[in-house]
Amino acid sequence: MQSIRPLTLTLALLLACATAFAQNKPSAEDARNVIDYYLLGQGQGPILMDARFCHNVVENECADLVAPDALIKGEAYNVWFRFLVPQGEEVNGIQVEFIHDGVTQISKELSASGSIRYRTWRFVRLEQEGDWRMKVSFRHGDGMEVLLDQPLVVKAGE
Questions:
Q1: Pair 110, 79: CB distance under 8 Å
Q2: pLDDT at 4 over 80
Q3: Which of these, 112, 89, 92, 110, lies nearest to 38 by C-alpha position?
Q4: Do 132 and 151 touch, CB atoms closer than 8 A?
Q5: CA 46: distance to chain centroid?
Q6: Of 64, 54, 59, 79, which is closest to residue 148 (Cα–Cα)?
Q7: pLDDT number for residue 3
Q8: How far is it, in rounded angstroms, from Cα 80 to Cα 95?
Q9: Could you report the per-residue pLDDT of 33-58, keeping only the tens digit for each?
Q10: Euclidean distance between CA atoms 45 and 116, whole angstroms
Q11: Assign residue 7 a region: left if phi > 0, alpha if psi is -120 to 50, beta otherwise?
Q12: What is the distance between the alpha carbons of residues 141 and 46, in angstroms, rounded to a whole number?
């Protein structure tokens, strides 16, 4: 089952991209791999399919998107996440860290339940200009598995 995880992650991300643009129908194999992970992937943890910054969340969807390299110091954002979590699985302790100058400045905790598209969001306000990183990870076995390590840029307000 462990060898399926990298392939499944790749396929889930491809499926998410195809869905986001609504232009490409996934192949039968891609769809089967995602469904198999949802039905049989218990114990392997969540797949982070999407993470976005937005001003509003409307009907569980991120609205008024903001690019991660165009964040404004002191401005309030919702950080919106979409996960694929195997059926029947409850994942607690998903960590979201906002790191500036190598130091975690803000830490948020998420949980997710079995779903093909589990959506959740947290409020954040970054108070320092410069380069940041958003790191999303969860406890898997004896260590932490990193789901996302994304650069952010916070600019001065106008």
A1: no
A2: no
A3: 89
A4: yes
A5: 10
A6: 79
A7: 46
A8: 14
A9: 999 999 999 999 999 999 999 999 99
A10: 13
A11: alpha
A12: 13
